[in-house]
Inverse folding.
């Protein structure tokens, strides 16, 4: 026999709600999670999850399990504390990743708190896989991670300790990974839809510390997001601003003319030079001076474009750079405000790729109050590196269909990576093919933060009164509120109905607290329970109860005789609200 489910009495629950949002809350989800008493901060970016929120997180975890199992994932559990030896073997320990928390155990051995689990899972697999006959497969777990974020923010959006579903797939080659990658990509959309987020887009992303040949991020598009996105509504192209590309149109196409020095008094900025010379900013060559470690570098881009520092970091293979100071510019023999790549000696020059095609640009003359007209790449200067280093601006042309793109903001709710052989080669994780030839395993990696997904759902589903949980992940489906004292008929009817619904598998709260009804209703709205049933003396005169959906102001009366069947019929476990 299965044990009959019981309703949860709210008088027995640890609940404390707040009427005002905390001053430090930047996002709606952060404010509501604190106001509803769903989490408590232990330290910056580290929270305890209270019972109601933990029910939500467990439901999201179950959705993750079901969708990973559906694509042949095998769940395991890997530890949070790692021997640093594994991270040294991959080389990431020596990379001095700022977010990595290192410590020593009682035996003075170097240890690491898990930021992610590539090292551990690759170590497992290299000891157990040796033949192509064992491939492909995917391992996943739902486990705690710790990343020492420099600025935890937004409640559960950017934390230091968090629970993540991460999966790792192993393949004989990149073609096999490509096929499986698409299965994971679809599974992720299923996860978001089932959790209530149907407006998530997959965007090209930066592999960052994970490495690999290709990655995608799943972005919940919302004005409260911290990530900047480039989206083309015409063809569906989407990318994080860090890696977005565009169809760069060459603006200046005339035949090269002789270089000419012109007097431009007090004209240092792009706009002032363009105005003085009566030309568009796209006619100018913008030269930025940066200090990269101990080296001065010049960045050459078109005057109407802006530098993308993430792209520059990819080109330089380091993020250890900054704008040069005036003293550093002077010491390099350059004149601030009039810097030019023309005639620059023993200084590294990085040019945006469109510069090589533009003709007759205006550049600084490296002399106070003077510029050079008709500067042409190849004839007047050359770059050490030519690459795409500019941001895609709103209204730029899409790299896929040449229609105009737009900017949006988003919260990253998941990512997938084609790791390739980065870790398998480092760990000698190999397999033998049918002919006995040995090859490194090809790997994929797939992550979703559980708390961040829950917070993103709140960012979408809320109103001025509190959270509005989708039924699929709601902590409880129904809350029943009796109006009156414990000895009243309304209380007895409410208690019986709560028991009946719980017995049918409906997760039911019974609000038996001895507080004012107005306070009860405010708490229930704040907590976001999808369906509220109120039972009072007036309704029972006509043998009716009052029902109200959380997302609606409308109330309706349902007969007491029909209420259980009505709930079972109308409580749809779909993502729609």
């Amino acid at each position: 026999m299965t044990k009959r489910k019981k309703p949860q009495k709210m008088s027995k629950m640890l609940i404390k709600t707040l009427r005002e949002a905390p001053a430090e809350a930047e996002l709606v989800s952060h404010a509501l999670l604190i106001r509803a008493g769903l989490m408590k901060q232990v330290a910056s970016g580290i929270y305890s999850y209270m019972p109601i929120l933990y029910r939500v997180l467990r439901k999201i975890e179950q959705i993750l399990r079901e969708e990973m199992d559906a694509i042949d994932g095998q769940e395991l559990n890997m530890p949070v504390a790692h021997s640093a030896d594994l991270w040294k073997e991959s080389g990431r320990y020596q990379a001095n990743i700022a977010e990595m928390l290192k410590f020593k155990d009682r035996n003075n051995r170097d240890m690491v708190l898990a930021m992610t689990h590539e090292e551990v899972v690759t170590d497992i697999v290299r000891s157990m896989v040796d033949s192509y006959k064992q491939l492909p497969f995917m391992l996943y777990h739902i486990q705690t991670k710790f990343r020492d974020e420099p600025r935890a923010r937004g409640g559960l959006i950017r934390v230091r300790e968090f629970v993540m579903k991460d999966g790792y797939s192993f393949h004989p080659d990149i073609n096999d990974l490509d096929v499986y990658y698409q299965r994971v990509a679809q599974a992720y959309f299923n996860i978001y839809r089932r959790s209530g987020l149907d407006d998530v887009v997959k965007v090209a992303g930066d592999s960052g510390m994970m490495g690999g040949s290709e990655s995608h991020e799943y972005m919940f598009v919302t004005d409260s997001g911290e990530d900047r996105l480039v989206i083309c509504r015409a063809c569906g192209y989407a990318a994080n601003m860090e890696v977005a590309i565009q169809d760069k149109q060459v603006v200046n196409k005339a035949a090269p003319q002789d270089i000419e020095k012109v007097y431009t008094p007090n004209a240092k900025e792009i706009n002032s030079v363009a105005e003085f010379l009566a030309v568009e900013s796209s006619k100018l060559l913008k030269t930025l001076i940066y200090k990269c470690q101990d080296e001065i570098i010049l960045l050459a881009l078109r005057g109407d474009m802006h530098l993308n520092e993430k792209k520059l970091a990819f080109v330089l293979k380091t993020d250890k750079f900054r704008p040069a100071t005036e003293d550093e510019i002077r010491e390099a023999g350059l004149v601030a405000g009039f810097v030019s790549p023309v005639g620059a000696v023993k200084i590294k020059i990085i040019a945006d790729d469109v510069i090589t095609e533009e003709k007759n640009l205006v550049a600084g003359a490296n002399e106070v109050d003077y510029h050079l007209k008709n500067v042409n790449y190849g004839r007047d200067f050359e770059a050490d590196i030519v690459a795409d280093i500019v941001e895609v601006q709103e209204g730029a042309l899409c790299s896929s269909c040449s229609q105009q793109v737009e900017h949006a903001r988003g919260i990253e709710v998941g990512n997938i990576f084609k790791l390739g052989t980065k870790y398998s080669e480092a760990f000698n994780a190999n397999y033998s093919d049918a002919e006995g030839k040995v090859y490194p395993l090809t790997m994929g990696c797939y992550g979703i933060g559980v708390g961040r997904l829950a917070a993103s759902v709140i960012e979408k589903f809320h109103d001025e009164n509190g959270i509005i949980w989708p039924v699929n992940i709601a902590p409880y489906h129904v809350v029943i509120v009796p109006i009156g004292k414990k000895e009243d008929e309304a209380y007895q009817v409410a208690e019986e109905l709560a028991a009946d619904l719980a017995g049918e598998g409906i997760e039911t709260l019974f609000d038996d607290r001895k507080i004012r009804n107005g306070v009860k209703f405010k708490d229930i709205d704040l907590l976001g329970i999808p369906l509220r049933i109120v039972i009072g003396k007036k309704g029972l005169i006509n043998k009716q109860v009052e029902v109200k959906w959380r997302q609606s102001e409308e109330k309706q009366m349902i007969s007491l005789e029909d209420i259980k069947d009505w709930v079972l019929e109308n409580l749809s476990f779909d993502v729609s609200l």
